[in-house]
Amino acid sequence: MKKLETEGYVVKSAKQGEHTHGRWFTGNLYNGSVKIAEFEEHGWGGPMDIHIKNEDMFENFVSFARTMEDSDYSEIDAILIEDMVNSFFDRKMVMAGRKKKTYFVVKNGDLESVWENNTPYNEGLVNALRKEYGDRLVGFGNEIFDIYPDGVDRIIRDEVA
User: Fold this and answer.
1) Contacts of 84 (CB under 8 A, 6+ apart)
2) Is it the case that residue 161 has pLDDT exceeding 70?
3) Which of 1, 42, 57, 91 can bridge 36 by disulfide, Cβ–Cβ 3.0-4.6 Å?
């Protein structure tokens, strides 16, 4: 998978890794086919480096980020880019494991965490997880990204997600 789209804005060619100081990632931000920025998060605690390639389109992205995140924070663009990168890699994980694993999100207080079960996504597993976690079960990675094992459709419609 090479890209993930959010309202016309696309993260492409994202790469990530970890080092002794934390997680790093790099990639490109596009609007349609126009590259509007390159980004690089070093994972050392400083701000994300964003190299703007198209000033007008990037300003539109910042305005979009303010509406998405409902904030005037000065680095709101970096926050939305990081959210898009996280979704990019979450989707990639679900794609890679879709035939053998089920990914689900559980809420514990204010924190949400992604769990995996080494069973393919199926109705019996979904019902068992719903019974075990109840209201703390936020959703399933397969349903969030519409990625299912061959021959399996979405099980939970609009109840959880």
Assistant:
1) 4, 6, 9, 11, 29
2) no
3) 57
